[in-house]
Amino acid sequence: MTLNTQPIALLSREQAILEFNRRVLAQAQRVDVPLLERLRYVCIVSSNLDEFFEVRFADMLDAARDPQSSINARDVERVARAAHALIDEQYSIFNEQLAPKMLAEKITILNHADRNDAQRLWVAKYFEREVRPLLVPVGLDPAHPFPQVANKSLHFIARLSGKDAFGRDNRIAIVKVPRVLPRVIKLPAALSDGQQAFALLTSVIRAHLEELFSGRKVESFSQFRVTRDSELEVDEEEIANLRHALRSGLTTRNFGRAVRLEVTKSCPAELADFLLEQFELPAAALYRVNGPVNLVRLNELIDQTDAPELRFVPHEPVWPEWRLPRQKSIFECIRKGDVLLHHPFESFDPVVQFLREAVEDPAVMAIKLTIYRTGSKSVLMDLLIEAARRGKEVMAVVELKARFDEEANINWAERLEAVGAQVVYGIVGFKTHGKLMLITRREGNRFKRYAHLSTGNYNPKTALLYTDLGYLTADPELTSDADSVFRQLASLGKIKMPRRLLLAPFNLHSSMMEYLARVEQAAREGRPARIVVKINALTDTELINGLLSAAQAGAKIDLIVRGACMLPPGLPGISDNIVVRSVVGRFLEHTRISYFRWGPTDADEALYLSSADWMSRNMFRRIEIAWPVQDPKLRQRVIDEALQPYLHDSLDAWQLGPDGRSTRVGGGGISAQQALMRRFLEN
User: Fold this and answer.
1) pLDDT digits (tens, 9 = 90+) for 133-165
2) If DSSP codes are grouped into helix, strand and coil, which group holds residue 262?
3) For the chain: N or C, fewer Cβ within 10 A?
4) In Å, what is the CA distance from 53 to each residue of 67, 261, 565, 573?
């Protein structure tokens, strides 16, 4: 077979992120998904798009200004058009599909015009009691310049008639909508005529907007919201204390460069142009939305609605009783062999129990843990604090630069230090993204180590929503490797490369490239050649080229990529041996698995679990781990549970085309996630 050595055009990363959100939005159109869950998918897309504009699109704008960059103004325009189309579709689904169905279920959002006299009286009293005391309208003039508008904060802009109290012709006023107020207010049942009736806070303010400007009329108005570049910029080489620098940076993050302006569809051009000028934005940055600005706040409506039949049936993860009997110590169970946990089908509670036993066990001398996203409230962090109070050696590697979790992690770091725990912040210039916990226990006259390795975060809440694999082990080599990683993160010294763990930025990328080359060689020689990779994103060009080279040699490759994928599959003679799937279901796919086969026997295969996606940032700018599953039974279990079901999913799966567009996989209606929920409940 002649290999195609010509470079191919990779798919746009930004377009790929928007395409992923199009797949998420499609969940809101599925009639087999409960109504309130369909609304939740609309909210998820809003949240995802906020982050897209705050980070990726902001970076793209910066790159377009760089003459050395491959990104130009046309690329920005193309992505902006796709974002506009996606947001228009999002509001269309909300207005034309979900709102009527909610009304049919007697769930209604009442605008001012829809409310009857009794409801208007109640809203008026609510406004006077709860809202008006917190509103401060600002009339603009030379002494009252356009106010500082924080990232994603909601405001009203109004054009007023006449002159102000001092006889001046200042027509424009700004009203900030306080963040402390609920965005969705449920009306009393006695006023709702058998329905569950809600009023949006913006509707409440709009109904009484003119009352804020005594003696003047509101001629025109609109809600508006600006999205800003929110990447924290800290020169780690030039600062003495990263925690203090980030704490300071958090105060200015909300006032970065504006990148998007949202207004209501009815916003007069005069007001929209005025806002664009204030935020120094081009017309293309204006997003007119046909409904509430910031749909993500409708999560409050979902939470307040009493309609369990319109939600997913509650899922209760199972405790793996046959591998971890509740009456036995987890340490005792791990000594007998490695234990694989598949979340959220299996409970995260064994991980919490593992740490709890370590805290309460007098024989445990030391506990080490990496902290990336653990949440502002965390039983795991509380246990670490308790361990330090009991005099155990506690080391926490806290990643202060976990995007949008910086403040929570800073707070945990300070609380841990206050009780005597050793807290380090990883390596300057690298995020610590690897997930590992190490327990050192005195057993007789020696120390024995136990470890937990994970593809996901130490966060019990997200463990109910994300698919991940956890690995409990007492394997001497793996635990020794984990100890070496912690030593390096603390000491910054050179370490002997781990024997079993792969570690970014050192050998993870090169090892994956070596496995790709091994499979490619097998394909050239006519031996079985197979690759299956399940990740969240594929954007690293070297790994993409390695996959393409193996595919052109004849290897069969399946990629299960939840989010952004820059590899164009299905190109004749180039990538027609590669199938790229994305599964979007009830749970967020988060597992990272790499499987390689280069021959006919079990000795000719390798399977790694990892914290890393196949992105350059993960491979070269983060501390990441990957570990082999060498036990044949556990390796087969990963294949049977976490790979094969997704390759046969015909309900939640999408297939990527060479043009970067996804189409839903048709078939017998098999959902991998639903099948796994049933399998674990039956066992």
Assistant:
1) 999 898 887 667 898 899 999 999 999 987 766
2) strand
3) N
4) 22, 11, 19, 36
Spatial distance between the Cα atoms of 512 and 592, rounded to a whole number of angstroms: 13
* Long-range residue pairs from 40-47, CB within 8 A, at least 24 positions apart, any chain: 40/299, 40/302, 42/90, 42/93, 42/94, 42/98, 42/295, 42/298, 43/295, 43/296, 43/297, 43/298, 43/299, 43/302, 44/296, 45/21, 45/86, 45/90, 45/295, 46/90, 46/294, 46/295, 46/296, 47/296
Distance CA 449, CA 451 (A): 7
Say if CB 184 and CB 299 are below 8 A apart.
Answer: no
Q: How confident is the model at residue 102 (pLDDT cuts 50, 70, 90)?
A: very high
Point out the catalytic residue in the list 433, 452, 509, 590. 433
**CB-count burial class (<10 Å; 0-12, 13-18, 19+) for 412:** buried
Rounded distance between C-alpha atoms, residue 584 and residue 155, angstroms = 34
Task: Tell me the pTM.
Answer: 0.92
According to CATH, the superfamily of the domain at 504-682 is: Endonuclease Chain A (3.30.870.10)
Q: What is the Cα–Cα distance from 538 to 8, expressed in whole angstroms?
A: 16
Phi first, then psi, for residue 178 (nearest 5°) are -60, 135
Could you confirm whether domain 330-500 is CATH 3.30.870.10?
yes
CB 559 within 8 A of CB 646: no
Beta carbons of 29 and 98 less than 8 angstroms apart: no
Active-site residue flag, 315? no
Q: How far apart are CA 458 and CA 354, in angstroms?
A: 12
Contact 523, 529 (CB under 8 A): yes
**pLDDT tens per residue across span 367-418:** 999 988 877 788 999 999 999 999 999 999 888 765 556 777 778 888 888 9
Question: For the chain, what is the mean pLDDT?
Answer: 91
Question: What CATH number matches the domain at 13-310, 3.90.1300.10, 3.50.50.60, 3.20.20.120, 3.30.1840.10?
Answer: 3.30.1840.10
pLDDT higher than threshold 60 for residue 171: yes
Write out the residue limits of the CATH 3.30.1840.10 domain(s) in the chain.
Answer: 13-310
Q: How many CB atoms lie within 10 A of CB 330?
A: 23
